[in-house]
Every structure is written in C-alpha cells, then in structure tokens.
Amino acid sequence: MPSVTQQRVILVVDDEPAVRRIARMVLEKAGHCVLEAADGRAALDLLRTYGGPLDLILCDVVMPNMSGIEFVERLKAEQPDMKILLISGMVDESPVKGLDLLRKPFNGQTLAAAVDALLPASRNGRT
Predict the structure, then answer these.
(1) Rg (CA), the chain
(2) CATH no. for residue 31?
(3) Residue 124 and residue 50: Cα distance in Å, rounded?
(4) What is the pLDDT, as a whole number, of residue 20?
(5) Can you give the pTM of this predicted structure?
(6) What is d(CA 4, CA 33) in angstroms, rounded to the nearest whole number?
C-alpha cells in the first residue's frame, strides 16, 4: 500500500467488483489511496483492523450481507463526523439524511468531482 502521509484515504464499499475496480482506478489516478470492501460487514471488519487515517467512505446503498444503510448507521454511531458518499443505481435520492448520493452509472469525471466536493482542499483541513 502506498504511503498515506500526503494522500487521502478512501474506502470503497460495493458488492460489484467492476465498480470497485473503476473507482480504484479513478481515485488512485487523482492521487488517493484506496481501500476496498465487498459489503458492509467486510467494511466493518476492515475498519477494525485498519489503524490509519480515513478521509472518505464511498458506499453502495444495496448490498448483500449488510446493506450500505446499515453499515452507515453503525459507522455514524461510532464516527459521526466521517465523510460518506452513497452510490446507487437502485434509488433516486439519498436514503440517509444529510448524505449525498451519486447515481450509478457514473463516469470517472463525475466520481472525481463528487469526491473533491466532499474533501477539504488540504489534508490539514481534515475534520
């Protein structure tokens, strides 16, 4: 894994390997470090073992094992200030109050713009 001292760390949670692969390519090209999980349960497991900074979670709404909504609710209970961007091809508006939704399918430019809109200009601006 690349050094995360200057990079933003983004966790991509989606049950579709193609979506994770495309998100990884786009986000790494933009200079971010990307972690991946196939569902909410795997994401919680990863977060329990990952000891570094996390700047943003990109999370699908509909997934097997543990939905994105359940994952986000659990995460928000522990880390209420975590930045989260929901993604979905199944819903038209965010099912979680206060969170943005990016509709699938999206292109790399749209994804990069949505991520940039949620992250402060400098790493020192992290909350």
Answers:
(1) 13
(2) 3.40.50.2300
(3) 21
(4) 96
(5) 0.88
(6) 7
